[in-house]
Amino acid sequence: MTSVPVEGTRPSDAERDRALAVLRDGAGSGRLSHDTFIRRMNFVLRAQSRGELADAIRDLPRSEPRQGWTRNLRGRLPRLKVESSASPNARTGAHQPRPAQVARRAPRFDPVGVVASWLDALPRFSFVRQPTAVPLPALALPAPGTSTVRIGRGPGATLRLADVSVSRFHAELRHVDDGWMVRDLGSMNGTCVNDLRITTTARVRPGDRVSFGAVAYVLTWTD
Fold first, then answer.
1. Where are the domains of the chain?
2. Does domain 138-221 have CATH number 2.60.200.20?
3. pTM of the entire predicted model
């Protein structure tokens, strides 16, 4: 069996692609015109042997393989010696224990905690229960035609009040034509009608609150 020359063997697809790449480079660099590139490309596609491929690109420079180009570039660059800053154990290959890594978990949403923080941020209100008001004792207004009622701590008072806040001659209460009048007699702690202190005389009626010093009454009709 006779051996076939290398130029006479059928080209592979990879060899045909490399030949087409050389033609494209030649057209891109201006070495081949457009018509020449089309004609040679058709020739490469119909080539039946490696020799025909070589004839199609014989007058064109062939680009170096990428691996060879990088190898040449690597050989031209100066080699740098990089010293590691690792510990002696790392350079010698000794095993170094690694610190335990703590897994960090994303904080979980806690609706109860959020509501509690909102409640803590709210201003505090304190509710004070007011003491139940004690009803005042009743003081009957003098009937029409009766004498004036004198209020005080002294022995000559009609309504005698044994309280240190009441003066000896504190006030007087009398009936007039169209109602009742109360008059302060210059007492030390004063006379008040509906929480307002009077200086001389004030008109009163049933339901008013009258206080002589610290002693208070509510005025009522005469029985």
1. 13-58, 138-221
2. yes
3. 0.41
